[in-house]
Amino acid sequence: MAEEKLEAVKDVEEEKTAIVPASEKKPDDSKALAIEELEKKKAEYAEEVKNKIALIHKEAEEKRAVADARRGAEVLKAEKKAAKYRATELVPVLQRRLIDFFQA
């Protein structure tokens, strides 16, 4: 999307400069100002696009951090449960029921 807009600005710039015949390409003030204005708009838009991309990367990084924290908490919870079962040598209820069922 951003590339399309940059290309559109570039196309407009090329169209406006292509309209001027080769004999009239001598830089006078109005043409130079128009080109300068187009370049300024192009630079402003490029900066705006860079800012949007940076914002997207920042949001994605924040989401990754939240997901990693959540995953870390789940791993910690599982490790605590495992340590508890190892320490008490008790089998979880569902597994105990299955063992009893198949042994009978």
UniProtKB/TrEMBL annotation:
- The chain positions of domain Remorin C-terminal read 36-92
Under the heading InterPro entries, the entry gives: Remorin_C
Q: Which Pfam families match?
A: Remorin_C
What domain of life? Eukaryota
What does the sequence similarity comment in the record state about its family? Belongs to the remorin family.
Could you say which residues form the signal peptide?
none
Name of this protein: Remorin C-terminal domain-containing protein
